[in-house]
């Protein structure tokens, strides 16, 4: 019975987090036009 209660509480917490993020919405901003470097450039 305790496991069922813990599962319900966890599911409710996850649902509340999802609804909060949905209500706040995506952050405003723009992406950088410069590409990201994935490797360290070699020095000659």
Automatic annotation (TrEMBL):
<dbReference type="InterPro" id="IPR048001">
    <property type="entry name" value="SPW_0924-like"/>
</dbReference>
<protein>
    <submittedName>
        <fullName>SPW_0924 family protein</fullName>
    </submittedName>
</protein>
<feature type="region of interest" description="Disordered">
    <location>
        <begin position="25"/>
        <end position="44"/>
    </location>
</feature>
């Amino acid at each position: 019975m305790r496991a069922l209660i813990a599962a319900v509480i966890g599911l409710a917490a996850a649902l509340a987090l999802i609804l909060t993020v949905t209500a706040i919405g995506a952050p405003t901003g723009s992406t950088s036009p410069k590409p990201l470097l994935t490797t360290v450039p070699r020095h000659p």
